Structure formats: C-alpha cells, structure tokens
C-alpha cells in the first residue's frame, strides 16, 4: 500500500500552552482554528456517563464544539452494526461543515480523559486528507492543570461552512478480508499492533462486550495503549494521561517489535510512502492511540476499523482466534 501525503503544517501533538497562544492569535480570524471535544466513554462505564451532556455542562475549552464519534460514522448492516466506524466522505464533509471547519482550518481535538478518544477523531481527519490536525496532549485535565481558562453553560454555535467532499486515503482503513490475507502470510505479513489489554489479547481475561471470545488475530502483536502514555496528577489530585515523549515511545515500540532494527525497518518503509503497520483494538477507538504514537516516531500506519468486535464476531464462521494460554 502506498500513502501520498503532503507534510503537515502543524504539530500532530500540541501542548496546552502552545494551544493557548494559538487561541489568542486566532481572535482576529475565527475560521483559522476549531477546537473539538471528542470525548467518548466505554459503553460499560459504571456509572454510565454521557459525553455530550458533560460537554454542555462544562468545563470545556473556550469556544469548543462537540464531535460525536458515534454519530459522525457509518452505521447499519453494511458495517455489521459496529460502533463509530469510519464515516463516508459525504458524512464527514457534512459534519465538518456543521462545525465551521474548512479544508485549511487548524483542528485541535481533545478529550476529558487526557489522551484516550481524541486520537480517533484526529485519525479520521487525517484519513480524509485534512492536514492541519492536532491532539491536545493531556486533554482537558492538562489544560485545567496549567491554569488556562475554561467555559461552561450553553456552548457557542459555529458558523456553518461548506466542506468539499474529500477522498479517503488509499489503504488507511483495512478491511476484514485484508486482515485475513495478512494473517495467512504469517511472519511475512505486515506488523499488526493490538491496543487491548494483555489479558484480553492472551485470551485469559474476558472481553467487555458480551458474546465475544477473547484472544487475538494470528501473528498480531500485543501493544496495550496505556504503555504509550504517562499518568500525570493534577493540582486537584485527579489523574490523567499524556502521550510519552518521542524517546520513551521509541523505547516502548522498539521493545514491542523486537529491537531497534525491526523498528527502523518500519520507519524506512514509511519514509518510502508505505503504510508500514496496522493497528487494531476492541472497536477501532484506542487503535488510534497507537497510530498517534507511531506517527510521532515516523511510522505511517492504518487501522483495522472493525477491530476485535468485527473479527471475533465471525468466530462461528471459522475465523481463527489465537490465545496464549
């Protein structure tokens, strides 16, 4: 697979104070910057939490808008009724326009966990060729911890724009059939990273979604997404996550793939325009955290959008599931 992309003009990961400076500079032209809250909670969160209701109540970043990852998505039988599947170009363009976004707008995405669901929305924009996308490192908690201003109450509505319908980058979303073919190649296949916990990957812990066996796609590699993050403690005593720096990411990923030489091969393939790895998780959400980390060290990658929900739901059809038990 090849990937043709122009170099980005903004950092993929942005620090709170850097974003605060951009917000100040953007006051003269409000179309240059859009801030999106892309918070998402696991469906089994106890007690249940509603990301949109929490966004409306605040606190949130100034002039932020809510990006609903489950609504800006392809739904229905064509995607096996799986959640937050990659939207069609038309659905994406409509949502971007409703949020006042234009093709050259700098979109900054955050979530209320720190770094959890925001990378998925950043990946979606990148997948449709939107270059100027950043993830706020540490999200809303880091923003608050730096003493930066927030707002609450009724959110500000954006002036709608017309976003031209984009094309999805070739190969950026891997299909089930492609994953089957890759698994059959064994060690010769493309590297596949799995963001779920080691217990779920090994098949020793149950899946959080009823009816699915745990285990993993044959020849995939376990890379629990929290291993790419650091936990910070805010002034209020609450903990949140930030992405590790590039040196720490290099060490973690090098250990995962079996050394610096193996990781260098992925970087070299990426420098030649190839999508050198594929990321998967439970439902396609935290796979984007791996995508983000790989991007930071120069490795281009794709996402198996159906992820484990799609793979394991076919177990009755004879789809292989490996376990380390």
Please provide a written account of the structure.
The chain is α/β, with parallel strands linked by helices and 325 residues long. It folds into 2 domains: 13-145, Rhodanese-like domain (Oxidized Rhodanese, domain 1); 173-317, Oxidized Rhodanese, domain 1 (3-Layer(aba) Sandwich). It has 11 helices and 12 strands. A 5-stranded parallel sheet has the order 1-5-4-2-3. The protein has a 5-stranded parallel sheet with strand order 6-12-11-7-8. Strands 9-10 form a two-stranded antiparallel sheet. A hairpin with a 5-residue loop joins strand 9 (229-233) and strand 10. Helix 4 (118-127) packs across helix 10 (287-296) and helix 8 (246-257) packs across helix 9. The longest helix is centred in the last third of the chain and has 12 residues, at 246-257. Mean pLDDT is 94; it is low at 1-6. InterPro entries: Rhodanese-like_dom (IPR001763), Rhodanese-like_dom_sf (IPR036873), TST/MPST-like (IPR045078). Residues 29-152, 186-320 form the Rhodanese domain. Keywords: Pyruvate, Repeat, Transferase. One of its GO terms (molecular function) is thiosulfate-cyanide sulfurtransferase activity. It comes from Kalmanozyma brasiliensis (strain GHG001) (Yeast).
């Amino acid at each position: 697979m090849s990937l043709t992309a122009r170099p980005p003009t903004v950092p993929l990961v942005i620090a709170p104070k850097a974003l605060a400076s951009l917000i100040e500079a953007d006051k003269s032209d409000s179309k240059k910057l859009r801030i999106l809250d892309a918070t998402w909670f696991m469906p089994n969160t106890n007690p249940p939490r509603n990301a949109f209701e929490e966004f409306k109540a605040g606190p949130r970043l100034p002039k932020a808008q809510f990006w609903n990852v489950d609504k800006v998505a392809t739904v229905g039988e064509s995607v096996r009724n799986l959640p937050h599947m990659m939207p069609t170009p038309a659905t994406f363009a409509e949502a971007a326009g409703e949020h006042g976004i234009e093709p050259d707008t700098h979109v900054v995405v955050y979530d209320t966990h720190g770094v959890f669901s925001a990378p998925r929305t950043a990946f979606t924009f990148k997948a449709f060729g939107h270059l100027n996308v950043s993830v706020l490192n540490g999200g809303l908690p880091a923003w608050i911890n730096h003493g930066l201003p927030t707002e609450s109450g009724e959110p500000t509505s954006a002036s709608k724009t017309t976003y031209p319908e984009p094309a999805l980058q070739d190969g950026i979303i891997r299909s089930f059939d492609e994953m089957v073919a890759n698994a059959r190649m064994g060690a010769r296949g493309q590297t596949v990273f799995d963001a779920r916990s080691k217990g779920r990957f090994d098949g020793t812990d149950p899946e959080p979604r009823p009816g699915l066996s745990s285990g993993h796609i044959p020849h995939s590699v376990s890379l629990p997404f929290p291993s790419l993050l650091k936990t910070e403690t805010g002034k209020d005593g609450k903990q949140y996550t930030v992405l590790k720096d590039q040196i720490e990411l290099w060490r973690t990923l090098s250990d995962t793939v079996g050394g610096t030489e193996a990781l260098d091969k992925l970087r070299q393939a990426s420098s030649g325009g190839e999508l050198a790895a594929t990321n998967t998780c439970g439902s396609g959400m935290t796979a984007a955290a791996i995508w983000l980390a790989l991007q930071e060290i120069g490795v281009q990658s794709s996402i198996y959008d159906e992820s484990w929900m799609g793979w394991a739901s076919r177990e009755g059809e004879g789809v292989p599931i490996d376990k380390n038990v």
